[in-house]
Design a protein that fits this description.
CATH architecture: Sandwich
CATH class: Mainly Beta
Strand content: 35-45%
Structural class: alpha+beta
Number of domains: 1
Number of strands: 8
Strand order of the largest sheet: 1-8-3-5-6
CATH superfamily: YjbQ-like
Helix content: 25-40%
CATH topology: Jelly Rolls
Number of helices: 4
């Protein structure tokens, strides 16, 4: 079993920016030279998430609306009182969504559905430069 790791850096435009990183992950897999195993994608930070979605304009609009309905930003969070940065909702959203994703590696490709892309979701209230660690484990 071998392990290969690369870091992807991206710039986000701020809260609920959804960035398609599928091609970035595919490039890391290609660089690894592995054909079968697992690809782990990890977003470094407590206000971001990694997931899959059908990356199309309707869902890019629907998903932030969904987040606002289940974890609204304009209510009081204890985090706001402590730090005054008004991103308590960002931390709660990140906890619910999670910061990593594992994908099967089959025949040298991340095994995704036809309409399934790997995305980085910015949950912080401001634009950020983000680090994503992609680890390929396999043979």
């Amino acid at each position: 079993m071998d392990v290969y790791r690369e870091i992807i850096n991206i710039r986000t435009s701020g809260e609920t920016d959804i960035v398609d990183i599928t091609d970035n992950v595919r490039n890391v897999v290609k660089n690894s030279g592995m054909h079968d195993g697992i690809v782990n994608v990890f977003g470094v930070g407590s206000t971001c998430a990694i997931s899959t979605i059908e990356y199309e304009p309707g869902l890019k609009t629907d998903f932030p609306r969904f987040l606002e309905r289940i974890i609204p930003k304009n209510i009081e969070y204890e985090h706001h009182k402590r730090w005054g940065d008004y991103n308590g909702h960002s931390h709660v959203r990140a906890t619910l969504l999670k910061s990593s994703l594992s994908i099967p590696l089959v025949n040298g490709e991340p095994h995704l559905g036809t309409w399934q892309q790997i995305v980085f979701i910015e949950l912080d209230v401001r634009p950020r430069t983000r680090k994503i660690i992609v680890t390929v484990v396999g043979k």
